[in-house]
Amino acid sequence: MTDKKPGKRTTLVHGGTRRSQYGEVSEALFLTQGFVYDTAEAAEQRFIKAGEDEFIYARYGNPTVRMFEDRMAAICGYEDAFATASGMAAVNGALMALLKAGDHVVSSRALFGSCLYVLENVLARFGVEITLVDGTDNAAWEAAIRPDTALVFLEAISNPTLEVIDLKHVVDVAHRNGAKVVVDDAMATPIFSYASACGADICVISTTKHVDGQGRMLGGVVCGDRETIRGSIETYMKHTGAALNPFSAWVHLKSLDTLDLRVRAQAAGALRIAAELEKHPKVSRVSYPGLPSHPQHAVAMQQAESGGTVLAFDIAGGREASFAFMNALRIFSISNNFADSKSIVTPPAFTTHQRVPQEQKDILGITPGLVRLSVGLEDPDDLLADLMQALENA
User: Fold this and answer.
1) Where are the domains of the chain?
2) pTM, full prediction
3) How many Cα atoms are found within 13 Å in the side-chain-facing hemisphere of 162?
4) Which CATH architecture has domain 8-256?
5) Mean pLDDT, residues 209-230 taken together
6) How does DSSP assign 184-224, residue by residue?
7) pLDDT digits (tens, 9 = 90+) for 44-84
8) In the CATH scheme, what is the homologous superfamily, with its name and number, of domain 259-392?
């Protein structure tokens, strides 16, 4: 290796590698919940302060998990990371670790249903004041963020309507007021993530999505500066049990080898499919940040090189037409996940966002005819043919 910083693909393959005394090529899987010490004095010392490659208990850390954490921190542009059992464990842990009763949080209104639940039903119940804003309105952020605001939370690209937030502007406003910024980056993908480049303090990712990306493992990660990650984040996580299982971490590590290749192929397919759907007479609206017709296309392309692997569109005819369309698909699977190697179709109004109040759905544009499309690794020509034949049945 030269002194030059390695590229993202090299980091995805080699970042954070720790080899045992056996010199294995593939990352080692340490399926152990505990560790032993040579002496009682050594045990005492490790509990006082563990070294970088010293471990106490798998809920606190594990060599396999630490490799995954180091690699994710490197590709997302942060100093450190803590891996969690799921994406929502990462979201909940980051928010709970950084907030206390009486704090004020400003969040974008367009969020995944479970994120809204954590904000409005969990944090609010424990005395945290929540203010929801239109994330695409810069003036709304400026009006809502106060000198006593502790934290700002948002999805860089919202689920399921794919609104794009001017992240640099939000970070600037938040930091002027002394607030930390936590970004949910699941839709942006680790490959096209721009949270660190825009100055966000914490980046949260559901690694269930693109990282595993093959329908096998739940996982999540919280990335940030070392002091915060190994301070309040790790302390909260290790005492509440949200740590990632070592086997899941090992599977994630092997998935990272191909992450860049997979995501770029999926994103290219998503752009092509979005452009074709936009021309179809039965489709009333297509939302994909890579399309010039997207309301935030300019800021989306300033922040990232791609619009990602997911798009959403409205089928004229509402629930009946959208259900007929989904039932007629032959390659796409009906599921509530996204970012898988298999293409997936989801009706958000009746699944992931079913319990969101109708008034909120109306504001967000989650209509009965809205379909979220996650583009996989199948041949784009086959996916387009499947979509077109299904639209004929809508």
Assistant:
1) 8-256, 259-392
2) 0.93
3) 32
4) 3-Layer(aba) Sandwich (3.40)
5) 97
6) E-TTTHHHH--TTTTT-SEEEEETIIIII-SS----EEEEE
7) 999 998 888 899 999 999 999 999 999 999 999 999 999 99
8) Aspartate Aminotransferase, domain 1 (3.90.1150.10)
